[in-house]
Amino acid sequence: xxxxxxxxxxxxxxxxxxxxxxxxxxxxxxxxxxxxxxxxxxxxxxxxxxxxxxxxxxxxxxxxxxxxxxxxxxxxxxxxxxxxxxxxxxxxxxxxxxxxxxxxxxxxxxxxxxxxxxxxxxxxxxxxxxxxxxxxxxxxxxxxxxxxxxxxxxxxxxxxxxxxxxxxxxxxxxxxxxxxxxxxxxxxxxxxxxxxxxxxxxxxxxxxxxxxxxxxxxxxxxxxxxxxxxxxxxxxxxxxxxxxxxxxxxxxxxxxxxxxxxxxxxxxxxxxxxxxxxxxxxxxxxx
Length: 287
Hints:
- By secondary structure, the protein is of the alpha+beta class.
- The chain has 2 domains: 5-107 and 249-280, Probable inorganic polyphosphate/atp-NAD kinase, domain 1 (Rossmann fold, 3-Layer(aba) Sandwich); 110-245, Sandwich (Tumour Suppressor Smad4), CATH 2.60.200.
- 20% of the residues lie in helices and 34% in strands.
- It has 6 helices and 19 strands.
- The strands form 4 sheets. The chain has a 6-stranded antiparallel β-sheet. A 6-stranded antiparallel β-sheet has the order 14-13-12-9-16-17, with no helix packed on it.
- The radius of gyration is 21 Å and the shape is globular.
- The mean pLDDT is 90.
């Protein structure tokens, strides 16, 4: 991969990670590559994210809008998105510089905005890589959420909330709420109720061309809208939330050593072998 200018983004409030970032700047400069710490420039060729998944989520919106590829190096605890382990970081970078073509995954992003149910005014939109969540305060009764896919009425959920997740986010809050694992490169939106009153209320998988519109029905107090783990708005009865696919995906540089399912098996402690088992050649010839 031809890299002339790189950005290195570090986990906030971590002097140890920032020091690793400074060492990486020196490493790039020693190879004649311009590099800057904790700055995103449209002229950059790549962003190297040092931290956990939260650090990558923090820069995902800007990176996708600028179409900057991102390589995540896991210095956190989980690492679904930051695929490269800390001790693999320089080996991964050497491989990146040596390869003419690097595999990049296109991960869809969502945009979310809300419409005031009284005035009809619409908020500014925000981006999400994992999910947009409508959720009640923990001590309040269930809320009712009327839901449409485009202009087609889906159902009215009685639940503690509703998750609208990307395939990337399917292994985050969506999975904890009983939603499906969706391969990260699929073009889809998962709609999953949180603790629904009716057990028959199941997750719905929609094509990404659909817009998901949700109305908070009365009676309701203030309800939270959380975007990629951060409180974005509070909405009240009869307000609408609009969620749709963003115009540009996030480009994630794949780890050269790990497949998507390898990461899932290791991070979710799935049964079976922790390493990839190759398909026998006598079967491969028929595939």
